[in-house]
Amino acid sequence: MEQQPQISDYGFLSDSRSGALVGKDGSIDWWCPHRFDGSSVFARLLDPGAGHFRLAPVGVGGPGHRVERAYLPDTLVLRTVHHTRHGSVAVTDALAAEVGARAHELGKNSPAVLIRVVEGLSGRVRMALDFAPRPEYGLLTPYLHEQPDGGVLAGAGPVVLMLRAGGLHLRAGVDRVTHEFEVSAGQVIGMDLAFGEAYGDPPARMDPLTTLAETTQAWRAFRETHGYSGRYPELVKHSSTVLTGLTYARSGAVAAALTSSLPEQIGGDRNYDYRYSWLRDFSLTMRALWVAACPDETSRLFAWATRSIGRFGDEPVPVLFGLEGERDLSEHHCNHLRGYRDSRPVRVGNDAWRQRQLDVPGEVMSAVWRLRDYLGARFEDELREMVLGLTEQVAATWHLPDRGIWETRDEERHYVSSKVSCWLTMDRAVGLADRLGDRADPRRWARVRDEIRDSVLREGWNDRIGAFTGAFGSAELDASVLALPVTHFLPATDPRMRSTIAMVERELGTEDGLLRRWTTDPAGFLLCSFWLVECLVMTGEQQRAEALFERVVGHANDVGLFSEQIDLTTGAQLGNTPQALSHIGLINAAWRITEPESY
Asked: What region holds the Trehalase-like N-terminal domain (predicted)?
């Protein structure tokens, strides 16, 4: 049975419309070309038979074969160098930008074209191409048609793919294209794979070499519009580029991750679809974009959120939306897929949109607070209605249980982090009252805020263990309480908070800086480790914070990408990848180290 690559073996390509994963073995094993949360044409990531596009030396991974790879500076254009016994060859991969796109135009009109350029560096290397598209998560096997120009057209259902390999005449097999060719030092061969819709415009035709140069320039021009002057600038700039790559440029929404159903534990069933945008992550994302990007990204993300929320009544605001604001993200299982290393089920959609999540309004209100000067002295009607609606909803419902920050699928509880987020909503509403018109009621809001605070301090604190716990009346530690100082609910120097930080670090932490979410969590959750960095800075332990930060960032793969979690035994990456929250956590922790008093 074919062994699937490690999650850390994959590099990330993006055109800010969709994304692809390419392994060290030269195989593109994930691509949903229509948009991030669309249907796949390659999904070998989740099943060996669900489609791939491999381009690598013959015998890749065998004796004498060595791989080096890196992104071209300030881009998500990936260059992989294969060293073999017969010579060396480079393959440069990119998802094409629109010709002429610069700065914030990147991704708004991406042509959905995958570029692969082969360059001989030394000797003479025999290359193998294996193109096996399987649209709709492997449900479809397309018909293949040879074209007069030497390319191959693949078509099935709603999908059309056109593969061209400059100068090579490809032959169509029954269900795939296989081809071998030799590359000598100095020889360059460009390939383009273009996506189209069966009943729409035909796939774009682009010159691979020109397009690669244009795409590289588009990414670099985008980075030139962004500045960062704090500590760890290269790490922050790269994480900012990854966040740009996870941004659906047409709306400004940031996908939580590129992938679906990569497991939190190999063989486990906590495998979820993360290709949507979470309001819970909203204020953390806004903060990271504000630090490492520019106001254009934060304002577009904010506009997407307000439009997505729309008018609402008594029903809870969903914790996540589709990338164009879709609300119904009903979940189904792809039972025909084996899952990554037999981790099932494979899910498309995410039923967390149905959950009551009391922390969502606080995330939105925190973002409004961050942008308050930018938004003006008196809010526009729609913004005012949203803020008033969120505030009144929290005032009426904060005492209810919910599913919590980790979106548990068992019973609802009174989670401490959710109550703190409710406190945050009311606190920010009081501060924004002068911008909200005659319906603002800051005195009543302040009473509710203080009632929530008293409840958390009374019910969330456990005297026996000397810490704030995950839920009211519980003795179970939960790393989410590290958000209390970050949200300024309590200063990190408060004796109760110091005790909680120490307890969480001792009971949930590991020697290499990883932090589990709870005691039975099977893996380290990277965001929690970055929260701990921030808490240590705020307690004045700057050197310990820096040492922890540097240990945690060591868990990135060879091209600086983080998944969601790290296996505590093997150190392998786990969960969906690349994970926006992990890169957001890095940016915010680096800025906290730079500016300890920053929000």
From this structure: 3-179
